[in-house]
Amino acid sequence: MFWTVLIALTVIYAANTALATQQMKQFSASYSTLRSRGKVAIGKQKNAFTSGSIVILLIDEEGIIQDGRKITGITVFSSFHQFTDLNGMTLANVNPATIRGARSFRNAVGNAKNNYLTIISGGVPVEPLTPLMKLIDRLDMRIGRHDDGRRTSKILLQREERAA
Description:
By secondary structure, the protein is an alpha+beta fold. It is about 45% helix and about 15% strand. The protein has four helices and four strands. It has helices spanning about 1-35, 105-120, 130-145, 155-164; strands spanning about 40-45, 50-60, 65-75, 80. The protein has a four-stranded antiparallel sheet with strand order 1-2-3-4. β1 and β2 (about 50-60) form a beta hairpin.
């Protein structure tokens, strides 16, 4: 029984690794395709138990969106797809709340917009918190380990210090 379970877990782990590698190759191919045509803005929304999203937007010198690729889903079976809903819009003026699609997709577009605005102002974008860090920050706030209402996790503070 032990060996059966161990072999099953090994097969599952190997399959997940292979599919995740395939998904990373899809990201690289999508990024390379758009990057060869100009500047790109990337946005991410990570979630633990609901769908997450990654958005790659091709923008011209004026910040107008020319093309886009997105991936939305929970599992490694998700793949990148082209979308043209935002083509012709200025990224700095995009309102994620008015975009049709999953909430994680809208949040990823908002993250891409924030990253773009941070970079054009000379800053360094801050990596979004992982689901685990979001949970830790919520627990810290409930326990009262914050002084001024800000999120006080060590990782977030280190990221803010690097960005400054």
